[in-house]
Design a protein that fits this description.
Binds amino acids. With about 450 residues, this protein is an alpha+beta fold. It is built from twelve helices and 16 strands. A hairpin with a 2-residue loop joins strand 6 and strand 7.
């Protein structure tokens, strides 16, 4: 009789044993650098460890200005230079404590990747989650919110991304009457059916997808997964959108034959959550990051990753290399803020979003990105809008929209990350040329990697 366990179960039990014997260690250093707090994380290595750490730091609204990452063998050691939203070192004891609790020994182990990418937790549910993907078009968001309003659903939160003519959104709703999650199967089926009809719009060749669940998820993590699954990176659908060529990220993918790695270099305009976005995509594509260097200098960010497949092999074909380039470009561009930033802050009420987005549509505005939140009795919403062709909206149109919605509740805000970066006067810069020596010396000095000389 064979008493052996399935290999996946054995791997899971071995991982748990390793983590119990070697709990993660977090060191927070406020003295080594004048400009940033250094966070060093040491732990037994497992697939998804890097994403977990970056996700925790990103969720705390910390900016990662530099990072040095190494995870060869059964152990990983990561060093992150972080600052708060005001550009200062970490001084808030509560934030430091949350880092320790989320990543340190008190957490027992890093949370599994499966839990961080969307497994629903019924006990924690305060709303029903709706996920939508499909072809983007002017007025789509208005139609979605109108349908939900007609179905007596109150939108308590939402995030919408558009890229390459595709749209992905995660919307959180409750029942208008009682404020509770909607769990009636028949009602959920109707919501799903009508939303799929709206999103598909009769013109989407790929089709539209809708999913309705009762539970919680990591919104931005899911949006990356949804857009990747919807193939928003596919070049055959690019329609010459509003992002100009000089804003296109520079991505190179080359094999490092003597070390058995594939090296991915990214150079682009810096913005919040950039590292989170690229690590999400590499993880979704089933790559493991063994070494990485992240450097932010002025308005630009430089990222270099040494990766392999889960099976330990580097990239082996030109088609796969091109796919990685396109996917990293998409990861950067999905969150890039195109258009004018409008902030709406008002008393929350049923149908508010349906009314506001209807006014946008009637004035020829197209929403390229949206973030909807409810804080107590207040609705705090952010919209990035362009005209229907993707161009900048005229000032008189914005004035008309503010006049209808209310000038005291709808404000135009400047977003420095929506501006175009300065033109590159020196031509294409290779991350490997500029930063490989510096990063490897730093990693070697910390004992994180073996010498590459």
């Amino acid at each position: 009789m064979d008493y052996s366990l399935p290999s996946i179960e054995m791997d899971d039990e071995f991982e748990k044993l390793v983590l119990r014997m070697n709990p993660p260690r977090v060191t927070i250093d406020n003295t080594s650098s004048r400009k940033a707090t250094l966070i060093k994380v040491d732990s037994a290595n497992k697939y998804g460890s890097l994403l977990e750490v970056v996700q925790v730091l990103t969720d705390l609204n910390l900016t990662i200005s530099r990072a040095y990452i190494s995870s060869d063998g059964e152990w990983f050691m990561d060093v992150f230079h972080v600052i708060d939203q005001h550009g200062n070192k970490l001084a808030d004891g509560e934030v430091i404590d949350r880092i320790q609790k989320s990543l340190g020994p008190r957490a027992c182990s890093l949370r599994s990747l499966r839990r961080s990418v969307g497994v629903q937790t019924q006990a924690a549910a305060k709303h029903t989650t709706i996920e939508l993907t499909g072809r983007d078009r002017p007025g789509l968001l208005s139609e979605v919110f109108a349908v939900l309003s007609d179905l007596k659903c109150n939108v308590v939160g939402a995030e919408v991304w558009t890229h390459n003519s595709r749209m992905a959104s995660v919307v959180y709703i409750t029942d208008v009457e009682n404020g509770l999650p909607i769990d009636d199967p028949d009602r959920l089926s109707k919501i799903k059916q009508l939303l799929r009809y709206v999103v598909k719009g009769g013109v989407d060749k790929r089709g539209a997808n809708t999913m309705v669940t009762v539970g919680v998820t990591h919104t931005e993590r899911r949006l990356h997964q949804m857009m990747y699954a919807d193939r928003d990176y596919a070049k055959d659908d690019i329609d010459g959108g509003p992002m100009t060529d000089h804003r296109k990220p520079s991505v190179t993918v080359e094999n490092c034959a003597d070390k058995g790695y594939t090296v991915v270099n990214l150079r682009c305009q810096d913005r919040p959550k950039l590292l989170f976005d690229t690590v999400c995509t590499l993880t979704d594509m089933q790559y493991v990051v063994f070494h990485a260097t992240v450097i932010v200098e002025g308005p630009e960010a430089y990222q270099e990753f040494y990766i392999r497949h889960l099976d330990g092999c580097p990239i082996s074909s030109e088609a796969e290399r091109e796919r990685v380039v396109h996917c990293i470009e998409a990861a950067v561009r999905r969150r890039s803020s195109e258009g004018i930033r409008l902030e709406l802050c008002s008393d929350d009420k049923v149908g508010l979003l349906s009314n506001v987005t209807r006014i946008f549509r009637e004035n020829g505005l197209s929403v390229t990105q949206a973030e909807v939140a409810t804080r107590g009795a207040q609705a705090v919403n952010v919209f990035y809008v362009t005209d229907a062709s993707g161009s900048q909206v005229k000032s008189e149109t914005i004035a008309a929209v503010r006049g209808e919605i209310g000038e005291t509740v709808l404000h135009v805000k400047e977003d420095i990350y929506s501006k175009s970066p300065p033109q590159d006067e020196g031509g294409k810069i290779s991350l490997g040329t500029l930063f490989r020596t510096r990063s490897e010396k730093f990693l070697y000095s910390l004992g994180l990697i073996r010498s590459y000389s």
